[in-house]
Amino acid sequence: MTADAAPRVGRLPTCLVVGAQKAGTSSLAELLGAHPDIGRPHRKELHYFDRRHDRGLGWYAARFRGVEGAAAFEATPAYLYDPEVPGRIVAALGYVGIVAVLRNPVDRAYSHYWHAVRVGAVRGTFEQALADEPAALARGRGVDLAWRSLVDRGRYAAQLERYAAHFGWEQLHVILFEDLVADPQEVADGVARFVGVAPLGPSWPVQVHRNRAARSRLPPVLRPVVRAAPHRVRPVVRALTMRPWTPPAMDPRTRGELLAAFAPDNERLTALLGRPLPQSWFPSAPSGSPSRAT
Questions:
Q1: E strands, 50-110, in order
Q2: What is the C-alpha to C-alpha distance for residues 179 and 287, in angstroms, rounded to an integer?
Q3: Are the beta carbons of 255 and 106 closer than 8 angstroms?
Q4: Domains along the chain?
Q5: Are 283 and 106 in contact (CB under 8 A)?
Q6: Closest by CA position to 275, among listed 293, 287, 255, 257
Q7: DSSP code of 24?
Q8: Does residue 223 have a pLDDT over 90?
Q9: What are the Cα distances from residue 100, in Å, to 37, 144, 191?
């Protein structure tokens, strides 16, 4: 994969991990970063193509200064959802490789919701957040799109089609979260081949990273103050104020309704990928129905 792009300003990525949010991109970034021929910046999410593109390509290239390896990448999960990002990537980098990790959209939405609750961006029940989503999306402002697009971000088919329209399907490498958990070595080797370096096979130190659920000890009124703190300060404050916590199970009725709502999009996604999705992505099939299980 060669990047046919604008004049070079320094080292730039040959591959981008574009999402989805809450779908295992941290695990994948750690796996790829362990390969000696794949380099990455110190910070996982640079957000250049969605939030910081006005800083210029020189700023972006500076994030890769000192990054070594035949291939280089960055991982910003929000890139998959933002409709402006694919065009910006092509304009800046040319036709680089695009990697996406997709997770059951119901589980992804629930994880996204609890993350939003944890940082104080959303209050109320999961069901209330689902009901409020259409109005929040209509407002179209930063915090609404970032934290309240619980269902919309899980409609992957349209998001992948948007990238395919810019890059072609041959430049897209799509991974399922279930495969990443079940066989991280095979997934890592597949991405290595995609970006043009040799797979490490059994010598690859593969380990799926698990984000441990946690909850802030701070009262909700103070959480926006943490979000507004300097970037280097926020992790320290959160480390001092977070405590381990296990979210409650999703209401089965809510899960069933969401599975039904996502079913048409997941059928479309199945056709686009040319492979079956796990049965858990769909409502329970009636007796005698064909299984979509991988």
A1: 71-75, 97-102
A2: 26
A3: yes
A4: 15-104+155-210+261-281 (3.40.50.300)
A5: no
A6: 293
A7: S
A8: no
A9: 20, 23, 10
**Average pLDDT in the 28-47 region?**
92
How many Cα atoms are found within 13 Å in the side-chain-facing hemisphere of 131?
A: 7
User: What is the mean pLDDT of the segment spanning 200-207?
Assistant: 69
For residue 229, what are its two tokens? 């703190």
Q: Which residues contact 266 (CB under 8 A, 6 or more apart)?
A: 105, 157, 277, 281, 282
pLDDT of residue 4 exceeding 90: no
| Measured distance CA(264)–CA(209) in Å, rounded | 31
Burial of 92 (0-12, 13-18, 19+ CB in 10 A): buried
Residue 245, φ and ψ in degrees, nearest 5: -160, 140
Give the mean pLDDT of 252-270. Answer: 98
User: d(Cα 92, Cα 82) in Å, to the nearest integer?
Assistant: 16
Say what angle helices 126-139 and 252-273 make with each other, to 10 degrees.
50
List for the chain the helix, strand, coil content (%; round to 5): 50, 10, 40
CA dist., res. 21 & res. 44, Å (int) = 13
Cα of first residue to Cα of last residue in the chain, in angstroms, is 29
Helices (H) and strands (E) in the chain, counts: 12, 7
Distance CA 256, CA 29 (A): 32
pTM of the complete model: 0.83
Share of the chain above pLDDT 70, in %: 78
Given a contact cutoff of 8 angstroms between Cβ atoms, the answer to whether 283 and 289 are in contact is: no
